[in-house]
Amino acid sequence: MNVEELKKKFLDNIKTAQEEKIQDNQIFIKIDKEDIKTVSKFIKEQFDDVNKILEQVFAIDFPDRNEMEMIYTWWFIEYHALVHFRVILPYDDLKVVSIQDDWVAANWHERETWEMFGIDFEGHPNLKQFLLSDELFGKHPMRKSFKIEHNPEEAK
Description:
Layout: H1 3-13, E1 18-23, E2 26-31, H2 36-46, E3 52-62, E4 67-76, E5 81-90, E6 95-97, H3 106-117, E7 120-122
Parallel strand pairs: 2-5, 6-7
Antiparallel strand pairs: 1-2, 3-4, 4-5
GO molecular function, one term: NADH dehydrogenase (ubiquinone) activity
Domain NADH:ubiquinone oxidoreductase 30kDa subunit: 29-150
Family: Belongs to the complex I 30 kDa subunit family.
């Protein structure tokens, strides 16, 4: 199977999948947030364990659009391809279902994204403070609206 066939497999089997582009050996697919669990299970069940790795789960803040994007990236070793699934989350609904029960690697990615961006991962069993100090916890410092409070006198 080549990159085009890999892309077709997702577009044919994921209800809301929309191709955005293929660049080199990277496939970019947009899905509705309701389908991330379907994607997670589909990859888990349809591809050999040795040929797939959940590489990253992260967020991007777009305040001008009043939304954030979740990006889920899997590496398919056999095809030498990265597949990026993009999920749009409006500011008034910053939640998505957790995939950590399918992918252990998602556990800390989701925890970090929850803490840094404030996106709730429904069903995640351990969303609690682990990176930020008490002073920063709950302030979501990776959001573009976050204001750094800096006192130059403290640096002396």
